[in-house]
Amino acid sequence: MKPSPSTILFQGDSITDGGRSRNEDLNHVLGHGYAYLISSRLGMELASKQKTFYNRGISGNRASDLYARWNEDTYSLKPDLISILIGVNDAWRFMNDEPRGYTDRFARAYRHLLEETREVIPDTGLVLMEPFILKTGATLDKWDGWETLMAEYQQQVREMAEHFGAVWVPLQQTFDAALEQADASYWLWDGVHPTAAGHELIARQWLSVVQQSPLAIV
């Protein structure tokens, strides 16, 4: 049985970034999103273990952007567990026909990143989080296209989680179920980016899945 992870790294785009600082200011270094909520909860509960939490999410990133900075922002940190949430910017560029969105490289870039990670740091645990959207704001006008493309991404990430032995954290159904309590913009203010309540929803789902998995942080 592997030892519990001591160094936990959150990677992704703006949803993970959460407005984090780019310096050593411990009051802001984890941002104000789900990564902060998970880290603060586990950090308090496991204070005697002194776990280390890093947030290297960068707003606007696609899967290919993650790979481009993986040496500096992942391998150099020597994480025992890497949690990844990526996909919405790949979809956004593609749906808006932006110059860098004509070729959809999401799955191939993501898979290449995971293949290399398994080669370079084979014992590191992987947590793959499901990309998600709701019908409001940025996704409203082209909802059918968004929904179809995101469903493809979700299936691809789920298959990669199985292939690479990663823990899969489903989130789309979590947000869909939350619509019974409040409308879409309450959770994802523009259909993509979470509100404070949306980040808490992600954090609770992450903890409920990961902490019942072989990668549990204890």
UniProtKB/TrEMBL annotation:
Keyword Ribosomal protein: no
SUPFAM superfamilies named in the record: SGNH hydrolase
Segments forming domain SGNH hydrolase-type esterase: 12-201
Coiled-coil portions: none
GO terms assigned for molecular function: hydrolase activity
Keywords assigned by UniProt, alphabetized: Hydrolase
Signal peptide feature range: none
Pfam families recorded: Lipase_GDSL_2
UniProt xrefs under Gene3D superfamilies: SGNH hydrolase
InterPro entries: Ester_Hydrolysis_Enzymes, SGNH_hydro, SGNH_hydro_sf
Keyword Hydrolase in annotation: yes
Protein name per UniProt: SGNH/GDSL hydrolase family protein
Upper taxonomic lineage: Bacteria, Bacillati, Bacillota, Bacilli, Bacillales
